[in-house]
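Below is a filled-in request sheet from our internal design queue. Each sheet records the structural input a requester submitted and the sequence that came back. We keep these sheets so that new team members can see what a complete request looks like end to end.

REQUESTER: design group, bay 2
PRIORITY: normal
MODE: inverse folding
CHAIN LENGTH: 204
BACKBONE (tokenized):
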């Protein structure tokens, strides 16, 4: 199966900006891949002049927030590192039944890589430091808008790989992989897994 991959533009963020930035990006992707009836909910970011749309699903919101908290915990243990979150959509297919097993497998058809460079800027109350913060925030807001447009462009252009829709299904099965405490180099770990299994084994 053809798996389309979208590497989103890297964003330089500070620790306190991670939660809002990731919520905005992950919810935007899932909303644009939603299938059935959803209750769209506009969300205004507190740190930026940006509004994004959620599916209005409490379970989905909870799952995304849990993954973001896992990611933030990892960042706290690995400060000043570039890091990546992978949101994958997949189909569940039954493997060829054998004498002993009748297993299913996940066939990944789309993967989104969210790339963050989490930095720490020294706190200072001088006028120049305040100007630096303002210009940095404006640059991040502009970059976040670019990422949102990148998502919309990808969704509109890449349609041939999307599997047929089953009746009554609202969301394609998906999973969000974040670095784990043992993954000091998450990217290398993902490559190793791909070499071993032929496709990434994600954390669900």
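RETURNED SEQUENCE:
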């Amino acid at each position: 199966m053809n798996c389309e991959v979208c590497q989103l533009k890297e964003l330089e963020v500070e620790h306190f900006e991670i939660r809002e930035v990731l919520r905005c990006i992950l919810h935007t992707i899932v909303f644009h891949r939603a299938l059935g009836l959803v209750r769209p909910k506009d969300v205004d970011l507190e740190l930026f002049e940006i509004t994004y749309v959620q599916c209005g699903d409490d379970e989905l919101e909870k799952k995304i927030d849990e993954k973001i908290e896992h990611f933030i915990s990892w960042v706290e243990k690995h400060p000043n590192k570039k890091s990546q979150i992978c949101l994958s959509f997949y189909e569940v297919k039954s493997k060829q039944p054998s004498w002993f097993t009748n297993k299913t497998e996940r066939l990944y058809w789309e993967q989104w890589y969210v790339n963050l460079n989490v930095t720490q800027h020294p706190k200072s109350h001088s006028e120049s430091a305040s100007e630096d913060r303002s210009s940095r925030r404006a640059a991040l807001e502009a970059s976040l808008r670019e990422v949102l447009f990148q998502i919309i462009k990808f969704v509109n252009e890449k349609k041939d790989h999307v599997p047929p829709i089953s009746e009554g299904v609202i969301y394609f099965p998906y999973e969000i992989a974040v670095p784990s405490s043992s993954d000091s180099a998450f990217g290398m770990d993902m490559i190793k897994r791909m070499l071993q299994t032929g496709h990434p084994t994600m954390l669900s």
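SHEET NOTES:
- The chain has a mean pLDDT of 81.
- The longest strand covers residues 104-119.
FILED BY: M.R.
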